[in-house]
Design a protein that fits this description.
66 residues; 3-stranded antiparallel β-sheet; 3 strands; globular; HTH_17; DNA-bd_dom_put_sf; SinI_DNA-bd; Helix-turn-helix domain-containing protein; DNA binding
Length: 66
C-alpha cells in the first residue's frame, strides 16, 4: 500500500497498512503510542507519522528449531 501524504488516513487505512486490527489502532491512540486527530467525529492520522511508526516498530520474524 502506498501512503498518500496529501491527506489524512482513516483508522481502517492505518490498520491495513500496519497489518493490525482497527481495535489495536484505537488502543494505541488511547495509550498515546500513536498520534491521531478527531475530524468531524472521526479519527484521522497523518501519513508521515504512520510511516515513521511503521519504520520504528518493524516486526521481525523469529525462527524456532524443533
Amino acid at each position: 500500500m502506498i501512503i498518500r501524504s496529501d491527506r489524512l488516513m482513516t483508522i481502517d487505512e492505518v490498520a491495513y497498512y500496519l497489518n493490525l486490527s482497527p481495535r489495536t489502532i484505537y488502543r494505541k491512540i488511547y495509550e498515546g503510542e500513536l498520534l491521531a486527530y478527531k475530524v468531524g467525529g472521526v479519527w484521522r492520522m497523518e501519513p508521515q507519522l504512520v510511516y515513521k511508526y511503521s519504520r520504528q516498530n518493524k516486526r521481525t520474524g523469529v525462527i524456532q528449531n524443533g
